[in-house]
Amino acid sequence: MTAIGFLNPGGPEVLQAQELPVPRPGYGEVLVRVGFAGVNRPDVVQRLGRYPPPPGASPIPGLEISGTVAAVGPGVADLAEGDRVCALVSGGGYAQFCLAKAAHCLPVPGDLPLDEAAALPETLFTVWHNVFERGHAREGETLLVHGGTSGIGTMAIMLGKLFGLSVIVTCGSPEKCARAIEIGADHAIDYKASDFVEEVARITGKEGVNLVLDMVAGDYVARNLKCLAPEGRHVTIAVQGGARAEINMAVVMTRRYTLTGSTLRPRSDEFKALLAQEIRANAWPLVEQGRLRPVMDMRFPLDRAAAAHARMEAGDHIGKIVLEA
């Protein structure tokens, strides 16, 4: 099979096609003939040498796929050859075939194109866990999301609105702000043109938001806390602005804030299986009903993965980029 990997970290140009043996599914696994693979920020960070795969995971990038089951390993009872699935994987997505844990697969409805199916798992698993499980979001609350037109941001908008949240996002241009409003955000702040802390205060009547989904970290954390209402929750899922933050712990104490965060890829297979069950019960019916669909940016052939990474790093994309295997 053809797969896309790299020998040494570097820019998008280090991504090269390789010919590798087709893997065989082990216990509890399925082999998926990949239709599409999602491109995500962690893939870029891995390519740069700053996010190595967890022990036992494929070194090939790619954390989400869609396609058809090509072979079933022992111990798998609920999937069969030919089934259309999408899956969260720990690596190996940038290839014509990819192994997936059967418990991490979700069935692709007949009216959902495979390119859109590949754009769902990573963002849906991430947003569901961090907004609703770690962040304890509840109907009627207000959520602030940075990177509102990213894959995560667009999913947070759509899922938030479907579950009764008011959603404020920050974006880097008037055009992206307008697109975020079209996607469903209640308010979009151009963080390059105004202070998002002041804008959140204005929008909320100085009451603040209940939850911040933070992908920036660094000096954003202290500013995010200024946006939070008492009892507010701050959830960090990436550190694009730096891993270190300086905050006033007295403010955390007096306003009873909760600060948490998570990374999904290194979590155990058991955890991901439980998360998949939660999503299948609570969010996947919205996909099956056609009410939840990913925002799609561009699709590239597998052998143009370098161009897909370049587009992501340029920051011009809105929604999800996928590779066609």
Automatic annotation (TrEMBL):
Pfam families: ADH_N, ADH_zinc_N_2. Signal peptide: none annotated. The keyword Endoplasmic reticulum does not apply. GO terms for molecular function: NADPH binding; oxidoreductase activity, acting on NAD(P)H. SUPFAM superfamilies: GroES-like, NAD(P)-binding Rossmann-fold domains. Keywords: NADP, Oxidoreductase. PANTHER family: OS02G0805600 PROTEIN (PTHR48106:SF8), QUINONE OXIDOREDUCTASE PIG3-RELATED (PTHR48106). This is NAD(P)H quinone oxidoreductase. It comes from Novosphingobium endophyticum.
